[in-house]
Amino acid sequence: MEKWFNVGKIVNTHGIRGEVRVISRTDFPEERYKAGKRLYLFMPKSNTPIELTVKSHRTHKNFDLLTFEGFENINEVEKFREGILKISEDQLGDLNEGEYYYHEIIGCLVATVNGEELGKVTEILSPGANDVWVVKGKGGKELLIPYIEDVVKKVDVKEKVILIEPMEGLLS
């Protein structure tokens, strides 16, 4: 069975020339949305993806705007609204050491270097210079862990364990 990875959600159309507005879920929008790249659109209530080829990509007000080959006007892309754009596992590129895909980090158990279990990563935020990992701890309390060398000491995606050395005030 093929594995699929979410790279964005089509939330609306933009203009009348077949452009769609996408909320991106990828660290690599320049690569994922490059002209000629294949994306697979999964619509709600459908298990069969629609294969799309990116024709153009630009950013506008925190959105990625895409057009697809063969879809030239608003009427043809209107039906794509609420669809999820995905890539297949064989489209994942190799990463440098210390870089991870979101799906590799989400679900990892986070513990301190002293062995105290803090919880599991439930979400990744990308607010600026570094990612922030949201960890759901005991009693549903959320911890925000910055992905920086001073804090994150070891990431083992095979064992799904992350060891951190909390800086002062991080756990309070």
Features of the shown structure:
SH3 type barrels, mainly beta, 7% helix, 172 residues, single chain, 2 domains, Elongation Factor Tu (Ef-tu), domain 3, six-stranded mixed sheet, 44% strand
Quick summary of this structure?
This protein has 172 residues and is mostly beta strands.
Structural write-up:
The strands form 2 sheets. A 6-stranded antiparallel barrel has the order 1-2-5-4-3-6. A hairpin with a 4-residue loop joins strand 11 (152-156) and strand 12 (161-164). The protein has 3 helices and 12 strands, in the order ββαβββαβαββββββ. The protein is mainly β and 172 residues long. It folds into 2 domains: 4-90, Elongation Factor Tu (Ef-tu), domain 3 (Beta Barrel), CATH 2.40.30; 102-164, Roll (SH3 type barrels). The longest helix has 4 residues, at 29-32.
Spell out the blueprint of helices and strands.
Layout: E1 4-14, E2 19-24, H1 29-32, E3 38-42, E4 50-60, E5 63-68, H2 74-77, E6 84-88, H3 102-105, E7 109-112, E8 117-125, E9 132-136, E10 142-146, E11 152-156, E12 161-164
Q: Strand order within the widest sheet?
A: 1-2-5-4-3-6
The CATH homologous superfamily of the largest domain is called RimM
Question: Per CATH, what is the topology of the largest domain?
Answer: Elongation Factor Tu (Ef-tu), domain 3
* Count of DSSP H/I helices: 3
Number of strands: 12
Question: Could you tell me the radius of gyration in angstroms?
Answer: 19 Å
What is the count of structural domains? 2
Overall mean pLDDT: 89
What overall geometry do the principal axes of the alpha carbons give?
A: elongated
Point out poorly predicted stretches. Answer: none
Beta-strand percentage range: 35-45%
Distance between the termini: 43 Å
CATH architecture of the largest domain: Beta Barrel
Main beta-sheet annotation: 6 strands, antiparallel, barrel
Q: Helix and strand string, N-terminal first?
A: EEHEEEHEHEEEEEE
The protein's oligomeric status is single chain
The structure class reads: mainly beta
Helical residues, percent: under 10%
